[in-house]
Amino acid sequence: MSNYIQEAQRAFDQAIDHYQKELKNIRTNRANAGLVEDIRVQAYNQSMDLKGLASITVPDARTIAIEPWDKDVVKEIEKALINSGLGVMPKVAGTVIHINLPPMTEENRKELAKIIGQKAEQARIVIRNVREEIREQIMKDEKAKAITEDERYSLLEDLDKSVNKMNEKIEADAKEKEKDVMSI
Q1: Which domain holds residue 68?
Q2: In the listed set 56, 71, 100, which residue is the last one of a domain according to the structure?
Q3: Spatial separation of the C-alpha atoms in residues 117 and 166, rounded to whole Å
Q4: Is there a contact between 80 and 50 (Cβ–Cβ < 8 Å)?
Q5: Overall domain count for the chain
Q6: How confident is the prediction along the chain (184 residues), in pLDDT tens digits per residue?
């Protein structure tokens, strides 16, 4: 595999990883630790991920339980959860913080489906931009006689195959997440 395609693949993989993390943070009808684990908490004079401060469990389909390893950060975690944009009110019971997720309405589900589509489009744009950068580099190298015309055609074909594979993955992930969101 050429350096061009390897470089493109690395960038594609980063874009897909970022996209999948964003999808993981979109709520479905079931509670999951992914909704809260990356929330930033101001603790110990620095900003940290919640997963680095507490044990996160899902006791049932609508509840997330967060048990900080240090009871002194309970208030900071509670504050971060309130400000997270999840739209939930955490309940503190001793050193355990419970988040009860209300059932999603049809309107919520449609809004989340729209957000999923937007995230998918953003990922496709990143993939397209990477493709353009690599394509320009290939064309520039051909003009500089670093590669032949045949190599250029072969590289561009390989690049397009990689782009198509990434776009199919984005689409499949979006459909899967949308199915999860729309199920009651």
Answers
A1: 33-100
A2: 100
A3: 16
A4: yes
A5: 2
A6: 578 889 999 999 999 999 988 888 777 777 788 888 888 888 888 888 888 889 999 888 888 999 999 888 888 998 888 888 777 888 988 889 999 888 888 888 888 889 999 999 999 999 999 999 999 999 999 898 888 889 999 999 999 999 999 999 999 999 999 888 887 6
